[in-house]
Amino acid sequence: MSEADAARPARRGAFALIRIALAALVLIAVAIALAKNWSAVADHLGEVSVSAWVLALAFGIASPALSMLGWRALLADLGSPLHVAPASGVFLVGQLGKYLPGSVWSVLAQAEIAARLDVPRRRTGVVGLVTMALALLCGALVGLPAVPALLGRGGGDALPLIGIAVVLLLGALWPPLLNRAIATGLRLLRREPLEHDFSGRAIVAAAAWTTVAWLSTGAIVWAFARDIRGLTGSGGEVALVSISGFCLAAAIGMASILLPAGVGVREGILVLLLVGVMTTPAATAVVVLARFVTVIADVLWAGIGWGWARAHHLLPEHMSSRT
Length: 323
Description:
Number of helices: 13
Strand content: under 5%
Distance between the termini: 40 Å
Protein name: Lysylphosphatidylglycerol synthase transmembrane domain-containing protein
Main location: membrane
Subcellular location: Cell membrane
Keywords: Cell membrane, Membrane, Transmembrane, Transmembrane helix
Structural class: mainly alpha
InterPro entries: L-PG_synthase/AglD
Number of domains: 1
């Protein structure tokens, strides 16, 4: 073993510790900020109606399932069609990996589980990474209308740049360009190329499912925001900032690969956006409730997927403890 090979595990361990430290610092900062404003935030938490909770939970539960359908479309296009049940067992269990520091744990977990269904690990890995890229692109695309709100009064000057960004993002989703980027990435990683390119139909289907999933998650924020005291904006402004603003904040959070699930980044940007249409305590309360619902939805779906996968002996031993 060369010195470089021997040093690689140490570098990975140090990088993991840095990620954990960053995540801890962000969580501490968020906790301190929340504690300072807790009395005002708590007042708003008690205002949310049952109907708002029902709407938010419905949107929250729908979003992971929609994302899974996009992932499933890409996997089928490469030659591994899965029924919705096993696809859920693979995708939704693996999704919990996004809460760990780093960006690829969910992909690794999905590849390990899918291997029990005779899906090549490399194929699942590529689909997982492409799904993450599509999520980032589609989230940024849906979030672009909220950019002027984030920039404040001078946001109108950014409209030409937003138009350019829309063209670039749509161009990145163009099948020939996306396939070339995937082939280049595999070559740089010294991996074998795919058996064939992704079809345009599969990319469009995956992008469509992913976009609807983003809209569904953003609607969680809207369900709470419209039901809370302290609004200073119109209904249309609240809807735009809630839905498009959430997508923008979450896409930026996804790009912050050092932090698990964009923790702290998403919340901070979303509060900045929401204070344009509501008071700061109200915005903070909405963000806290939205994060709670998304985590609950992820855990609920992961539990269902884990139960199915365990019953069908798809889980590795370390993920399936038997009493």
